[in-house]
Amino acid sequence: MKNIYKYFIPTENIVARGGLTDVAALLPPYCKIVLLVTGKNSARKFGYTDIIIDSLKSAGINTIVFDKVEEDPSIETADTAAKIALKNNCNTVIGLGGGSALDAAKAAAIGGATGISIEKLLEMKEKPMEKLFFVAVPTTAGTGSEATQYSLLSNKEKNTKLNLATENSFPDIALLDAELTVSMPVNLTRNTGVDALAHAIEGYLTTRANPFTDILAESAITTVAENIHKVINNPNDISAREKMLIASNIAGRVIAHTGTSACHALGYYLTLVNGLPHGLANAVLLGKIVKWVSKFSPGKVEVIERILKNNVEDFMKTLNIDVSLSNYNLTDDDLINMANIAAGRSSTKATPGSPSANQLVELLK
Ligand code: NAP
Ligand code: ZN
User: Fold this and answer.
1) Confidence at 160, pLDDT banded by 50, 70, 90
2) Could you tell me if 96 and 48 are in contact, meaning their C-beta atoms sit under 8 angstroms apart?
3) Ligand 1: does its nearest atom lie under 6 Å from the Cβ of 148?
4) CATH code for the domain defined by 12-180
5) 95 CB under 6 A from ligand 1?
């Protein structure tokens, strides 16, 4: 079949301020032992872990907590979580946190159902479809991981990320509780917000875009443009927080279909080698990639600039983001390595004009 567009998101999305207190009500009756996968500090510090444990306990459900997920989680961390699920006969995984916790939880739900190590699963061409019942609860508004099938796991030896995904690895339920995002400090709010913007823009510009994803991407770009300054200037603006969470979710649906672009492909290196947070890495690179794409897809770039009322780099400057790569301690070798790794990724090949490693180095200068 030619020219067939597909839009497939099996996740049930629930938007409920304060909904975490009633998380047990979201689980089907057979969920009796839950593995809660979360980060090292914030979920405990802000009381979210206890809210989940209390809700599940009052419904007669046991919770096993795995709170060891680091930022940009490794394959080993996800594998440890999966083995804990197996050992304790968990039939449900709840991922709570930023994209790191959600991605590790997603992998644990697959490893915990199949009994296959995460390393092996990543290598398999035909991956099994099983996964444990999986609920994703984002506490940042940026990655949209609760709306995607992707679990991005860091390969720290190769300075890149591997993606564990199957047609069935979307969360069963995504709980969008904006109250959980209010505790984000300003930098995290900004870095995660621009990640959502990057997903929407990259998905809009990639050669894998389709009419469904275009409409979603334009809506996500608009919602971020209207709300990101509000949540930075007034962190308690719950209505703007909720809009950012929804924009992040919609941008996640876009990349679930389109993937990202050369921007994310390059950004993984900036994160793993130079320590830039995921969203900030994309914010620094996005304008440069959009400029490259404008040679091939000028009409779409015009739409983006009309919505942002700026070009992408100038929009980032309104958020006080320094977009000069020269200010982030990159050596010439870093630039070449980063470009070489990114050039091999399918998301770079799907970027209009399919930039080669040399062309990536040029556009980064
Ligand atoms: P993150 O790495 O999950 O978290 C960053 C920091 O924010 C952590 O220190 C975390 O603390 C803290 N934090 C999280 N929620 C908070 C809250 N409500 N209040 C205060 N602090 C909070 O950041 P992220 O940008 O959300 O996720 C980035 C990861 O997502 C990367 O690994 C990236 O590759 C992945 N990603 C996945 C997809 C996908 O489709 N699957 C898409 C884009 C990005 P704790 O560690 O203590 O929790
Ligand atoms: Zn991202």
Assistant:
1) confident
2) yes
3) yes
4) 3.40.50.1970
5) no
